[in-house]
Specification:
Layout: E1 7-10, E2 13-16, E3 28-31, E4 34-36, E5 46-54, E6 60-69, E7 76-79, E8 85-86, E9 91-98, E10 106-114, E11 121-128, E12 136-141, E13 149-150, E14 168-172
Parallel strand pairs: 4-11
Antiparallel strand pairs: 1-2, 3-5, 5-9, 6-8, 6-10, 7-9, 10-11, 12-13, 12-14
């Protein structure tokens, strides 16, 4: 109890926080420790929650929560502001959203810092698998009805004012 102003004793160690009058140490429990977003579609938000429980006897102060990504794209992000405290025996949720933008696998970490003296930071692995490649196949259909495919769109000699048509088939092969 000899901690400086703005700090509290947690497990015999002074950590940032405030004394709220509740005797005892907080004990953080986070689940799950991995959020797997599966293979969401490009541009579509997917939200998953992490549950933060306080198994201790003192109020748990959540000092910080943020997402660290393996790359610089902001595809993984917190959904709203996490709670500042979790009372003894209570739980709260922290939401994480992914919005795929590039078809690449996204990985990162949700970092939750608290005043739990023996576990001041908890890391939750974040994973969103490859959403598939975007690939377009263009096929110029032949005049024959055999479905043959060519790679040149040629109209031949077309008199002025006349109309010529050819069929172009586009297919997503990604």
């Amino acid at each position: 109890d000899d901690c400086a102003v703005g700090f509290v004793c947690a497990g015999g160690t002074c950590v940032p926080g405030t004394d709220d009058g509740v005797a005892g140490d907080p004990e953080i429990d986070v689940s799950p420790l991995e959020l797997d977003f599966g293979s969401p579609l490009l541009g579509v938000d997917v939200l998953l929650d992490v549950t933060v429980r306080n198994l201790g006897k003192g109020t748990l102060h959540l000092l910080d929560a943020h997402v660290l990504e393996d790359d610089l794209a902001p595809e993984l992000r917190l959904d709203g502001d996490p709670p500042a405290t979790v009372a003894p025996g209570e739980e709260a949720t922290i939401g994480v959203t992914v919005r795929p933008a590039d078809g690449e696998t996204d990985r990162g970490w949700l970092v939750i810092a608290s005043d739990d003296g023996d576990e001041p930071a908890v890391y939750v692995h974040l994973l969103s698998e490859v959403k598939g490649e975007t690939a377009l196949e263009a096929c110029v259909m032949s005049d024959e009805k055999d479905g043959a495919c060519g790679d040149t769109l040629a109209f031949g000699d077309v008199p002025f004012g006349a109309t010529a048509t050819r069929t172009l088939r586009l297919r997503n092969v990604g």
